[in-house]
Amino acid sequence: MKQKFISENRYSRRQKILMWFVFIGIFICGMMAGAFLWQKKTIYTADSVVQTAVDACQMRENALLANVLQNIDDSWPDAANYHRRNAYIYERLIELGCKENSAKYQELGDAEFQVWDALNEINKISNDGVVDEKPCYVIETTLLSNIHNCGDSPNCHLENAEIYSKMAEDGCTENRQKYAQKALDELKIAEGVRIDDSNVDRSEIRATINTYKKLQMQNEAKKYLNKVEKLVNPGIDFIMELQRVIEE
């Protein structure tokens, strides 16, 4: 008796057409999903870049605004110098701060310049109308222009710490405490942003010791030197050199 074998792989024309429609539908859905994800990723990336830029300019603004002198009494003999110093800081804010705040800082800077000019006229400090600045104000203004916007660079923050400690040492008496605290803050930031505590070179060690020395914090300098000696073992000659610096 003959058996009839019917192939299970045979489909009717109608079934084949339906299958093609299904395959095409799946393909189109896949492309649409991919395009959506790509667009979402692009938008997210662009937003992230914009947010990072905003955060960076705000950090620069905060660092500079902390140096603006508030509540200046125009009866002070050196009030004109204070106003000119503030005007310089506002110029830096226009240059390094967020663009949307430029007009505000321009207005504030212009106001400081106007007060400075008015006080010069009133005081008649010198025949040519130029203010004879106290040396401490010149030192502070000059050093302030060297402060960096560091981000996550430990070495950069240590440089800032040295500059602030120099301002505390040689600047005006009334500002010493403020700049001393800024120097310590920069030391703390430098240590905080360093991923590997043992990844510190001699220049960074020397900068930290010099900062503590200028702040007359010899005990803190000794503690730091003992800590570094255990972490990186920079060499006996280098350690002795720094010990002499601390004891001077």
Main features:
248 residues; disordered N terminus; mainly alpha
Report on the structure:
The protein is an all-alpha fold. The protein is built from nine helices and no strands. Helix 5 packs antiparallel against helix 6. The longest helix is centred in the first third of the chain and has 53 residues. The radius of gyration is 33 Å and the shape is flat. It starts with 12 loop residues before the first helix and ends with a helix.
For the secondary structure, the number of strands is 0
- Globally, the shape reads flat
Instruction: Estimate percent helicity.
Output: over 70%
What's the number of helices?
9
Beta-strand share of residues: under 5%
Distance between the termini: 117 Å
Structural class call reads mainly alpha
Give the uncertain stretches in residue-range form. Answer: 1-9, 125-129
H and E string: HHHHHHHHH
Major β-sheet annotation = none
Mean pLDDT over the residues? 78
Question: Whole-number radius of gyration?
Answer: 33 Å
Give the helices and strands, then pairings.
Layout: H1 13-65, H2 79-96, H3 102-123, H4 135-144, H5 154-170, H6 176-193, H7 202-214, H8 218-232, H9 236-247
Brief summary:
The chain has helices at 13-65, 79-96, 102-123, 135-144, 154-170, 176-193, 202-214, 218-232, 236-247. With 248 residues, it is mostly helical.
